[in-house]
UniProtKB/TrEMBL annotation:
Domain RL residue range list: 41-109
InterPro entries cross-referenced by the UniProt entry: MTPAP-like_central, NT_sf, PAP_assoc, RL
Residue ranges, compositional bias (Polar residues): 538-548
UniProt entry tagged with the keyword Magnesium: yes
Top-level taxonomy: Eukaryota, Metazoa, Chordata, Craniata, Vertebrata
Record protein name field: Mitochondrial poly(A) polymerase
PANTHER family with a match to the protein in the record: POLY A POLYMERASE CID PAP -RELATED, POLY(A) RNA POLYMERASE, MITOCHONDRIAL
Length: 552
């Protein structure tokens, strides 16, 4: 169950936000002029992990003075950064400048005593702040939002957007915020503390969309319990003629070891993990995992341990997402489009996943002329000795330093790329070809799976093996239809003043049953009706909100 997160501050309307952000008309939208700092994935992960280790999560009283709160905590040392958010109560994330401050704060913290229940005495970095006497404080706190904009807002954003590019606006609204990213690393760090009770040298690393630059607000938090340090400590060189080894228990396979470790960590999270609820051990899956909700952050977490390759594919996607800013904008647009048409779902099943969609976008961008993204094989040729990486016999070597990859000379606009994406996949020979980002070209399918996207590192695996023929057909139909809608291009743009959808807004409309059999005229009329209805309800909603705010 997702907690409800509420924004305390009073934001302006979307239209106001957009006006503020409008770019001068006529500016060219390409990706490579972007000046994003190009940090290596490992650097970024290490920095954020170290920050998270100096950070605490505090449940606060409903009414609190920010100034007094910071003064109280500063007794333990200077604070580097803090923010508040709401999730069934008010929480604060406080990052100290020094790690010792966390210890000092914990030393002055007691285990609560309760009348009816008994507390399990577990000292974590998730604390609760109580007022000593019941005098209520004046609240003057701005909290940050951790949830994505609603579908209604999504539509409003893309509809109202004129000069400013629709896809980039969507990206800005849906991407993970700095606060949300901090909260993700902190949650991993809190879980690492619990796992460290058994494995003191373990590291819990976020992977997947939380770190690969394609994460949308509200996406799950994939965690990797890294036990390599624990395993490799024995490789220290010692002098003398002897070698010491730990006495250990042996099990018949890596898979059984994984299951045993996750089983015990799962129990631990269930019994001692503050805020960890709904713990499920899914140990018979192809990749065994422990799934749980971290209530205080609102994240749905998947903890795994023997899939280091997934961490490497997150690093590869991070590189693709950082190389050219058009990549993320296009992926977000396609993800939102797929969600709006129920092509993807939060429930596992025969649908296309966001990971597969991201691979399709990358492949498409490799196929442009000139290519916008390099193939994985060409990233491999740019690698140096330090980048060499073999995991379980799979060659995972590719260049890690983003500055060594030449920017693309392609200047196509996002608007064109979106249309071409639908056209490309609306006509792709899925029946005989597979998608392969390693070589950046179609290949014959090695089996009869409806959709075949080769896993870039475990090359004998298909990452979209779960997708059924009917789900693939739905994707193809919608892609063809969206390409058609986008081709109506500039004439639609003129209709903005008549509140008619254009560009992305037009293809985010929910599918009308049997829409494909509609005549063009009918199709247009039904879209216009939907927009009119939506705008009417937006207007009345705004009036209601306005009245509500004024009444408070
Ligand atoms: N993964 C993989 N092969 C698969 C599925 C997943 O290698 N068949 C890896 C990918 O690195 C992926 C990560 O596991 O990024 C997490 O999977 P998932 O949560 O399904 O996808 P995300 O990319 O995190 O996207 P979402 O926002 O939907 O969670
Ligand atoms: Mg995920």
């Amino acid at each position: 169950q997702r907690p409800i997160l509420r924004l305390l501050s009073c934001p302006g309307t979307v239209a106001e936000d957009l006006r503020r952000d409008e770019q001068p008309s006529g500016s060219v939208e390409t990706g490579f002029e972007d000046k994003i700092p190009r940090k290596r994935f490992s650097e970024m992960q290490n920095e954020r992990r170290e920050q998270a280790q100096r950070t605490v999560l505090i449940r606060c009283p409903e009414k609190i003075s920010e100034k007094k709160f910071l003064k109280y905590l500063s007794q333990h040392g200077p604070i580097n950064n803090h923010f508040f958010y709401e999730s069934f109560g008010l929480y604060a994330v406080v990052e100290f400048c020094r790690k010792e401050s966390v210890g000092s704060l914990q030393n002055g913290t007691r285990t609560p005593s309760m009348a009816m229940e008994t507390a399990i005495p577990f000292r974590s970095r998730f604390l609760s702040l109580k007022l000593k006497n019941q005098t209520s404080e004046q609240s003057c706190i701005q909290s940050s939002d951790q949830l994505p904009p609603s579908n209604r807002k999504l539509f409003e954003i893309t509809l109202l957007c004129r000069k400013y590019d629709q896809l980039n606006t969507l990206l800005k609204e849906f991407q993970l915020t700095e606060e949300n990213t901090k909260l993700r690393y902190l949650t991993c760090s809190l879980i690492e503390d619990i796992a460290a009770a058994y494995f003191p040298d373990c590291v819990v690393r976020p992977f997947g969309s939380s770190v690969n630059t394609f994460g949308k607000l509200g996406c799950d938090l994939d965690m990797f319990l890294d036990l390599d340090e624990t395993r490799n400590l024995s490789t220290h060189k010692t002098s003398g003629n002897f070698l010491t080894e730990f006495q250990v228990k042996n099990v018949p396979s890596e898979r059984i070891a994984t299951q045993k470790i996750l089983s015990v960590i799962g129990e631990c999270l269930d019994h001692f993990g503050p805020g960890c609820v709904g713990v499920q051990k899914i140990l018979n899956a192809r990749c065994p995992l422990v799934r749980f909700s971290h209530q205080a952050s609102g994240f749905q977490c998947d903890l795994t341990t023997n899939n280091r390759i997934a961490l490497t594919s997150s690093e590869l996607l991070y590189i693709y997402g950082t190389l050219d800013s058009r990549v993320r904008a296009l992926v977000f647009g396609i993800r939102c489009w797929a969600r709006a048409h129920s092509l993807t779902s939060s429930i596992p099943g025969a649908w296309i996943t966001n990971f597969s969609l991201t691979m399709m976008v990358i492949f498409f961008l490799q196929r442009r002329s000139p290519p916008i993204l390099p193939t994985l094989d060409s990233l491999k040729t740019l690698a140096d000795a330090e980048d060499k990486c073999i995991i379980e016999g799979n060659n995972c070597t590719f260049v890690r330093d983003l500055n060594r990859i030449k920017p693309s000379g392609n200047t196509e606009t996002l608007e064109l790329l979106l249309k071409e994406f639908f056209e490309y996949f609306g006509n792709f020979a899925f029946n005989k070809n597979s998608i392969n980002i390693r070589q950046g070209r179609e290949q014959n399918k090695p089996d009869s799976s409806p959709l075949y996207i080769q896993n870039p590192f475990e090359t004998s695996l298909n990452i979209s093996k779960n997708v059924s023929q009917s789900q693939l057909q739905k994707f193809v139909d919608l892609a063809q239809e969206s390409a058609w809608v986008l081709q109506q291009k500039d004439t639609d743009r003129l209709s903005v003043s008549n509140n008619q959808p254009w560009g992305l807004a037009a293809i985010l409309l929910p599918t009308v049953p049997n829409r494909r059999s509609f005549t063009k005229k009918k199709r247009k009329r039904s879209a216009n009706e939907s927009v009119r209805n939506l705008l009417e309800s937006l207007k009345s909603n705004r009036t209601a909100n306005f009245t509500e705010t004024n009444e408070k």
